[in-house]
Every structure is written in structure tokens, then in C-alpha cells.
Design a protein that fits this description.
With 186 residues, the protein is an alpha+beta fold. The protein is 30% helix and 23% strand. A hairpin with a 2-residue loop joins strand 4 and strand 5.
Length: 186
């Protein structure tokens, strides 16, 4: 735990809307391809979760890539163009955060092709009057439930909430978490 604590302390405050690179991909919440205004304001509205592409894609209905090709996204990412962080729009329920909307399946498909074992930023935006200041540590690691219903969901291993990184208990030795935290370093 010592190394992780040192890394988090060294990071200090983290701006989830800052331009940064994860697993070689440039993310820009304000001007990246596919950006959503809510992504740049996530520190006020919700939190930023770091998840594997398979986690994000498992929460959202499948996309027929033959009908909606992603070659333009793949080309942009490979050329170094910034992309906006994907987003999940959620409602708080007794069983966790119920996904009600999403943006970024195409980007996550490309990221899964590039490095499926890396963690990437995803904005978690609660609907209604909930703001980041209203959340608790339990809320940020609550289960994210798929948009099409069901009991199975996922929990992100790393979260940026109120400009501070949090590692989900049990994921302290996860190399992908350590890598993502190092990538957050200025």
C-alpha cells in the first residue's frame, strides 16, 4: 500500500477535465472528438471513473459496427487526435447506479482494440439534482448497472471525485490502476 499512498499523495488535486494521455491515447474533455459538455464539468456534476473498455461496453446495448462504422475514430486516435472521455448518464437506485444513457461506444471499441487491459476515463453523470458534493465514498464505488436492466454490473477500480483519486478497496495492487495513476501525474 505504501507505494500507492505515495503516488496518490504526490498527485495532489487532479482536474478530471485536464488534457492527458492514457495508454497512448490523448483525452480532451473540452475539444476532443466526441466530447460532451458534461465531460468538462464532471467535477461539479458527478465523478470520473476509470474502467476497462469491456466494462463500459458491457453496460451499454451492443452497437452494430457494420451499420455505424468506426474507422474515422480509429484513424483519429491512431493519428494522435484527442478524443473526449466517454460518458454514462445514471440514476441512483437501491441496487446501484442504473445506466440510462451513454456516449462513446465507438471510442471504447477502438480503445478495446488498442489496449483492452488499460483503464480509460469515463464521466459518470447522475441525472436530477444530484451533484458531486452530494455523493459519498460509497456512492462512487457503487455498482453500475447495465442500461438494459439486470443484476450484473461493474464497479470501477479507480475514481476521480472532488479532484482526488480513490482506489476501490481490493484493487490496490492492480497494475492497471497504478499505470493510470502514473499517467495522471503532471
Amino acid at each position: 500500500m505504501g507505494r500507492l499512498d505515495e503516488l496518490i499523495t504526490r498527485l495532489g488535486q487532479v482536474d478530471p477535465a485536464a488534457v492527458r494521455r492514457h495508454a497512448g491515447v490523448l483525452f480532451d474533455a473540452r475539444r476532443g472528438m466526441g466530447e460532451q459538455p458534461d465531460a468538462a464539468n464532471i467535477d461539479y456534476r458527478g465523478f470520473q471513473a476509470y474502467m476497462y473498455p469491456s466494462q463500459f461496453l458491457g453496460l451499454n446495448a451492443p452497437r452494430d459496427l457494420d451499420l455505424l462504422p468506426i474507422d474515422h475514430i480509429r484513424d483519429a486516435v491512431k493519428s494522435g487526435q484527442a478524443v473526449g472521455p466517454p460518458m454514462l448518464y445514471v440514476d441512483k437506485s437501491p441496487k446501484g447506479w442504473q445506466v440510462r444513457g451513454h456516449e462513446g461506444r465507438g471510442r471504447m471499441h477502438v480503445l478495446k482494440e488498442l489496449d483492452p487491459a488499460a483503464l480509460y476515463p469515463v464521466g459518470i453523470h447522475p441525472y436530477g439534482e444530484i451533484r458531486a458534493r452530494d455523493l459519498t465514498p460509497e456512492d462512487i464505488f457503487n455498482r453500475l448497472l447495465p442500461d438494459r436492466g439486470g443484476e450484473l454490473g461493474t464497479r470501477p477500480p479507480l475514481v476521480i471525485w472532488q479532484q482526488r483519486p480513490y482506489v476501490r478497496p481490493g484493487d490496490e495492487s492492480n497494475w492497471a490502476v497504478h499505470t493510470a495513476l502514473r499517467e495522471l501525474s503532471p
